[in-house]
Amino acid sequence: MRTNRIFVALIVSFVLWGSSAAQRVERYNVAALNDNRVVYALPLTKLYLEVELERVVEQPGELSLYAERFLGTRDAIIEPATYYHINGLKLGAYGIPDPDQRYSIDFKKNSTATNVSLTEEGILVGINGDTPVIAQIPATKKPIISSTDNQLYRMLPPEYIQATTTAAKAQILADEIYRTRESRNLVISGESEQPFADGQALKIAVDRLDQKERAFVELFNGTRQSAEGVEVVTNLSATEEGRHVVARFSEQVGLLPSDDLRGEPIYLDIEIIEQAPQLEERDLIRLQKRLEKGVTYRTPGLVKATVTFRGERMLAQEIPVAQLGSLEALDMVLFTTKGKSASVTFYTSNGGLKEVREINQ
């Protein structure tokens, strides 16, 4: 078996907002391949920023202007509002096919390699391994707030519905709230005139009174609902050193593209920590000879990535990067020794060697 360098121009399109949750892996049977050959690509590392958001929606009640007068509430919601919070940030890496790093593996007839796994884009996943589903980029999740049907108007007293002024409605409903509280206290203390067969019946009665009070109080205080979601910013450079605006955030709108000035900037700082040296011509010739005798993979370089928002460092981590590393060759003796074989897997985000495991035949 040997590997040959193949230069192929690829057109790859990138989407900044949104992503797929997982990549399907294609598994190829070596015996069924044309010319016993598999063409694969090494990855080019890209970064993504995962933003965990919380969306909050506030709605005033019909009687919000009377909340302090009748219930003593000073923080009732007066105006409708929608706003967002950032609950968390995560930084990760994923791989796309490197158009300058494509190779082929030519299997000999007596090879102990039975299958090769590639991503849908052609990145090498493994040899003689299972066919996993690779979750490279998290899925987006919109913070959807569902509407609730609390059957409020079925519980309202007839006097409330018949009242012709808002002030009259507020007085009627406030009286009903205090009566509901009194009824609940009587039920809990056992002083209620209505008997209850058991503790479960008592609990149901208390829950209904609680629901009724809560619904009526919301007409004064308003409602506040929240939902959590996830937005993902992709196609971020892993090698361009310095500080870059990768997204923006607005409490009124949520996450925004980097060029939308309605939001405050979220910065990504990249610092290269480890990078393979430039090889001289004679060293390149030696490397090419080694690559022709094995399966080419990467020993990735390393960067330090830091995310900053509002002057605060939100996270910092070291990330392996394919294009900063060196090329290496996996010895084909793993797949040519009679009676023995191996299972090999690679990191699809940086091309590095993940695991080599012996297989008993």
* Main sheet attributes: strand count, strand direction, barrel closure: 5 strands, antiparallel
- Give the N-to-C terminal Cα separation: 19 Å
The whole-angstrom Rg is 32 Å
Shape: elongated
Q: How many helices in DSSP terms?
A: 6
**Overall helicity:** 10-25%
Number of strands: 14
| Order of neighbouring strands in the sheet with most strands | 2-5-6-13-14
The H/E string reads EEEHEEEHHHHEEEEHEEEE
Strand percentage lies at 35-45%
| Structural class by helix and strand composition | alpha+beta
Would you kindly provide a written description of the structure presented here, covering whatever features stand out?
The protein is an alpha+beta fold. The chain is built from 6 helices and 14 strands. It has helices at 67-71, 152-155, 158-162, 166-189, 199-221, 281-292; strands at 2-6, 25-29, 37-59, 81-106, 115-119, 124-127, 223-237, 242-250, 254-256, 264-274, 294-309, 312-331, 340-346, 353-360. The strands form 3 sheets. The chain has a 5-stranded antiparallel sheet with strand order 2-5-6-13-14, with no helix packed on it. It has a 5-stranded antiparallel sheet with strand order 9-8-10-11-12. It has a 4-stranded antiparallel sheet with strand order 1-4-3-7. Strand 8 and strand 9 (254-256) form a beta hairpin. The model is unreliable at 1-22 (pLDDT under 50).
Describe the structure in brief.
The chain is an alpha+beta fold and 361 residues long.
